[in-house]
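Teaching assistant here, posting this on the class forum so everyone can see the example we discussed in section. The complex has two components, and the goal was to see what a joint structure prediction looks like when all of them are supplied at once.
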Amino acid sequence: MPRTVPPWEIKREVYIKAEDETDPKYGHAPMERSPNELIRYGVINLNKPAGPTSHEVAAWTKKLLRLEVIGHGGTLEAQLLS
Amino acid sequence: MTGVLPITLEDSTKVVQAFLYSGKEYICVMKLHGDVDESHIRSVLSEFEGEIYQRPPLRSSVKRQIRTRRIYYINYLEIDGRNVLFRVGCEGGTYIRKLCFDIGEVLGVGAHMQELRRTRAGSFNENSQTHVTLHDVAYYFNEWQEKQDPKLLHAFIQPMENALVLIPKLVVRDSAVDALCHGANLTAPGILSVESCIEKGSLVAIFTLKGEAIALGKATLPTEEILNTNRGTVATLERVLMSRGTYPKIWKSGTKQ
C-alpha cells in the first residue's frame, strides 16, 4: 500500500500574488481580541477525562463558562457507548 | 476514552467542520484473544497502512455503508501478554474499535479495542501548553473573573485561527472581506497570497492580512491557476466565520469591481 503523508506533516509554500496594506482601523489580530471576543471566537484544546461522553464534557464546559453555544470536534465516546 | 477533544465556543463552533475532516492520531491498547508472535503482529499492523475499507459500527452517528479511510501510519510500540500497544495516524472518521476488530481477524485469533487515547485532532495535540483539563478551565476562568487579567483567558482559550493552521490558506485584501462575510464567493482580484497543494475542491481557509479567519471555502481552482488568473471565482464559501461589518462595505451590488 502506498503511504500518504498525514496532514500535519505537509509542508506548504506561500505564493504572493499581489501586495497590499491593511487598515488598522478595522478588525485586529487574533491575539489582540478583547476578552469577550476571545471567548466568542475561542477554541479549547481539552484533555477529555475517562468516564463522561464527549457531549457531557462539552455541556459541562458550556455551563462552566456560562455560554449559549458550544461544539466539539470528533466525538471520543465513553467506553460503554461505542 | 480520553485525550484531545477540541471544544469550540460560541461563534467558533463553525470551525468544527475543520476538525471533523482533519487527521487524527491515537494511542491504542488492543487486546488479543489468543497468543501471536510479535513479528507477526508487526507485519499485520503494517498491512493496514494505506487505504482501508470500513463499515461504521451498529452504534454510530453516520449511515452504515462501507467507506474508505486512509491510515497514514501504524507504529507498533510494545506487547504485554495479549495487550498490544500501538500508535495510529488516520483520516478523520476512522473507527479504531473496528480497526482493532479487523486486525484481530487478520491475525486469526480475534481482538478488541481495550483502551484508546486521542493524541491529536488536526492541529491540536496533547503536547502543547494549551492542552488543558476541565480543572484548568474552571480554575483559570474563576481567576480571570476575579482578576480580569487577559493572560488567564489566554491560558486555556486559543483563537479559532489556531484550529485552521493545517488547512491551506488564501489571504485577501481588506476590500474583499465584507463581501465574504455576506457569503459572496471569493474572486481572483481580492487575492493577495495562496498556499501550495490546493486542488480543485480542497477545503481552504480565507484570512485577512491581520491573520483573522474570515471564512472556510472550497477551492474551485488549483494553486497554480489561482496564481495565474485575474478574474472569476476562485473559491465558493462553506462557512462564514467573521461577523458582518467588521470591515467596511466597499462593494456595490450588481457592479463589477
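For the discussion questions: The longest strand of chain B covers residues 67-80. Helices of chain B lie at 16-20, 38-47, 96-107, 134-147, 150-154, 174-181, 223-228. Think about how each of these relates to the inputs above.
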